Amino acid sequence: MIGKISGRLEYRAADHVLIDVGGVGYIVYVSERTMSALPGTGEAVSLYTDLLVREDLLQLFGFPSLIEKEWHRLLMSVQGIGAKAATAILGTLGPEGVGRAITLGDWAALKAAPGVGPKTAQRLVMELKDKAPGVMAMGGSLPDALEGPAPEVPEVIEPNKPAVKPVATPPAASQAEALSALSNLGYGPSEAAQAVAQAASDAPDAATPELIRAALKLLAPKG
C-alpha cells in the first residue's frame, strides 16, 4: 500500500498530476480543491495517498490531509459511490463540509457535487450519519494538511532541491476537540456531532471554546 508520496510535480492534467519520486513517475488523481492548492510544475510536493486496486486497474488518489483520506474511504463504502465520485464530493465541500452535510442531513449540499443525484445524496446521509461523528472526532489526532515544517525530500530525489511545499486545507481539530468535550459532558456521539456541525456551519472560523459554547446552546432544552 502506498500511503504517502513526496517528490517533484512533473505536470498537471484535468484530474490528476504526475509526481516524480527518484526517477519514477506516479500518476495521482486529486480533487479540484487539492489541485488548486498544489505548487507549480517543477516544485516539490507531498500528498497522502490511497491505492485503488481492481482486476484491470491500479489508481492512486491523493489528499492533503489524513482526515480527508478517511472521509474518502467512508464515502466509498456507500453503494454507488466510487473513488472519483468521492473525490468530487470532497472537492466540492471539503472534509469539514462533508462532515457537516452528513451530520445535519443536508443532502442538498452533497447533491451539489458533480455526478451525485438526489437519491445518492440521500443514501449518503442515511448510511453515514451514525459513522460521521467517528471520523469528525479523528480530526484532532490526525496530521492535518501537512502543516508545520515541510518534510524533507527523500535522498533518492535529486539533492539541493527546494523543500517540499505543503498543501493547505482547513483544520478539523477544533471540531474534534469540541466533540470530545461534549462527549465528556455526557452527550451522545450523534447529538454532539449535530450540534458541533451546526455551530461550525454558523461560524466556520470559530475556535474550540466558541464551538463548545455554541453547541451547548443548541443542545440546551428548549422552552
Automatic annotation (TrEMBL):
One of its GO terms (molecular function) is ATP binding. Pfam families: HHH_5 (PF14520), RuvA_C (PF07499), RuvA_N (PF01330). GO terms for biological process: DNA recombination; DNA repair. Residues 1-64 are annotated as: Domain I. Residues 174-223 are annotated as: Domain III. Residues 73-92, 108-127 form the Helix-hairpin-helix DNA-binding motif class domain. One of its GO terms (cellular component) is cytoplasm. Keywords: ATP-binding, Cytoplasm, DNA damage, DNA recombination, DNA repair, DNA-binding, Helicase, Hydrolase, Nucleotide-binding. Its main location: cytoplasm. It is found in: Cytoplasm. InterPro entries: DNA_helicase_Holl-junc_RuvA_I, Hlx-hairpin-Hlx_DNA-bd_motif, NA-bd_OB-fold, RuvA, RuvA_2-like, RuvA_C, RuvA_C_sf. The keyword ATP-binding applies. The keyword Transferase does not apply. The RuvA-RuvB-RuvC complex processes Holliday junction (HJ) DNA during genetic recombination and DNA repair, while the RuvA-RuvB complex plays an important role in the rescue of blocked DNA replication forks via replication fork reversal (RFR). RuvA specifically binds to HJ cruciform DNA, conferring on it an open structure. The RuvB hexamer acts as an ATP-dependent pump, pulling dsDNA into and through the RuvAB complex. HJ branch migration allows RuvC to scan DNA until it finds its consensus sequence, where it cleaves and resolves the cruciform DNA. Belongs to the RuvA family. HAMAP family: DNA_HJ_migration_RuvA (MF_00031). Has three domains with a flexible linker between the domains II and III and assumes an 'L' shape. Domain III is highly mobile and contacts RuvB. Homotetramer. Forms an RuvA(8)-RuvB(12)-Holliday junction (HJ) complex. HJ DNA is sandwiched between 2 RuvA tetramers; dsDNA enters through RuvA and exits via RuvB. An RuvB hexamer assembles on each DNA strand where it exits the tetramer. Each RuvB hexamer is contacted by two RuvA subunits (via domain III) on 2 adjacent RuvB subunits; this complex drives branch migration. In the full resolvosome a probable DNA-RuvA(4)-RuvB(12)-RuvC(2) complex forms which resolves the HJ. This is Holliday junction branch migration complex subunit RuvA. The gene is ruvA.
